[in-house]
Design goal:
99 residues; alpha/beta; 3 helices; elongated
């Protein structure tokens, strides 16, 4: 009788927990960067979040929407200086990696 090998398509966690970044105490005169990796609906999500931020903090915050290709590549190598340079221009960053 022939046998069939069943593969597990799930991935394994690579490493331990990563703590959340400290939150901004307020958004007054803060620059926020919104980044996505170009996947379906990531930009739509960020557009909506940025719009809510603008409506609630109209004169307090500068919001910048940035589409940054190959963000996945940079996320895998957080020591990459281009990635760190890009993110360090902002007081706060929102990143969406969505499908």
């Amino acid at each position: 009788m022939a046998s069939i090998e069943v593969l597990d398509p799930t991935s394994r966690t690579r490493g331990g927990e990563i703590p959340l970044a400290p939150r901004l105490s307020d958004l007054h005169e803060k620059a926020l960067g919104f980044f996505d990796n170009g996947k379906w609906n990531a930009r739509l999500l960020l557009d909506n979040i940025a719009q809510i931020v603008r409506e609630q903090h109209v004169s307090d915050v500068e919001t910048t929407l940035c589409e940054y290709d190959n963000l996945d590549h940079y996320a895998e190598n957080a020591e990459d200086t281009a990635y760190i340079e890009q993110l360090s221009r902002y007081d706060g960053v929102v990143i969406a990696l969505g499908d």
